[in-house]
Amino acid sequence: MRAQQFTILRLCRAFSAKEVFMKQHLMRNINTISRCAALYRDAHLADCGLSGWQAPYIPEICAAPGITQDQLALRLHVNRSNVTRQLAMLEENGFVLRRRSESDRRAVEVYPTQKAEETLSAVRAVYRSWREKLFYDLTSEERDRLESLLERLARRAEDIQ
Q1: Which helix (H) or strand (E) holds 108?
Q2: Cα 73–Cα 75–Cα 62 angle in degrees, nearest 5
Q3: Are the C-beta atoms of residues 108 and 96 closer than 8 Å to each other?
Q4: Residue 110 in contact with residue 61, Cβ under 8 Å?
Q5: Which residues contact 77 (CB under 8 A, 6 or more apart)?
Q6: What is the CATH number of the domain that holds 21?
Q7: Count of domains in the chain?
Q8: Are 129 and 44 in contact (CB under 8 A)?
């Protein structure tokens, strides 16, 4: 009986270790894709004066002028201090204006400048180019399936958060 319990315990431990490894491997791959995407944006948006980590802010701010810093943090899934830091650089480089909200003096609203509006098409083009290069050898069915699975995981991650 003890030998059987030991074997079962070993199998459970082995399975758990394998499961943990697979989850870490998946998360490492997702993280690698995210970081490589930021590096790609860095290289292709440098002429516009944007970093790869600032680029996601431009479409969000242009789509919702007056969005608050807290709303940006929620939409981009980053902490508020990162948003504050990135917006300070975007403001310094002429992409955004920040103002205290009239209705809630604690909130800071963010508005795109003409420079941000003019840069928006370049940002979208870089995103499009990245997607095309990343998915070039996937069939449309594979793309659809991957997108569906990642959307499910993203929703679940938001719920867990």
Answers
A1: strand 108-112
A2: 100
A3: no
A4: yes
A5: 158, 161
A6: 1.10.10.10
A7: 1
A8: yes
Q: How many CB atoms lie within 10 A of CB 109?
A: 19
- The 10s digit of each residue's pLDDT in 134-148 is 999 999 999 999 999
Structure tokens at 24: 């870490």
Report phi then psi at 159, rounded to 5. Answer: -70, -40
The CA distance from 149 to 10, in Å, is 32
Can you tell me the distance from the alpha carbon of 118 to that of 113, in angstroms, rounded to the nearest whole number?
9
Select from 137, 130, 131, 128 the least CA-distant residue to 43.
Answer: 130
Q: From residue 140, how far is each of 135, 144, 153 by CA, in Å?
A: 9, 6, 20
| DSSP codes, 43-68 | HHHGGGT--TTTTTHHHHHHHSTTEE
Parent domain of 118: 2-160
Q: Which one, of 58, 77, 55, lies nearest residue 67 by Cα? A: 58
Structure tokens at 34: 């995210």
pLDDT per residue as tens digits for the range 16-66:
555 555 567 888 888 999 999 999 999 999 999 999 999 999 999 999 999
